[in-house]
Specification:
By secondary structure, this protein is of the alpha+beta class. It has two helices and two strands. It has a two-stranded parallel sheet with strand order 1-2. Helix 1 crosses helix 2.
Length: 73
Amino acid sequence: MARLPGVRLERLGKAGRWDLAGPLARLARLVRGAGIDVVYGFLDIANLYALAGGRLGGARVAFGVRSSYMDFS
C-alpha cells in the first residue's frame, strides 16, 4: 500500500467475525486522542465502523460503496 504524506493509516486489530466492541472502542479513542477530523470507510463493514467510531470520536464521516454489477432498470 502506498504511503501518502499527511495521511495516517491505523489498524484496529479486529480479531474475528464477532470481535466488534474492542475495535470500535479503539477507533473512537484514536479519533478523539489524535484529533482526527475525518474518518473514511469503504464497503459495508468498514462503513459501519467508520460511522459509529468516527461519530463517537467526534469526527466527520465519509464512506464509499462500489459495485461491480449494477442493474439500473
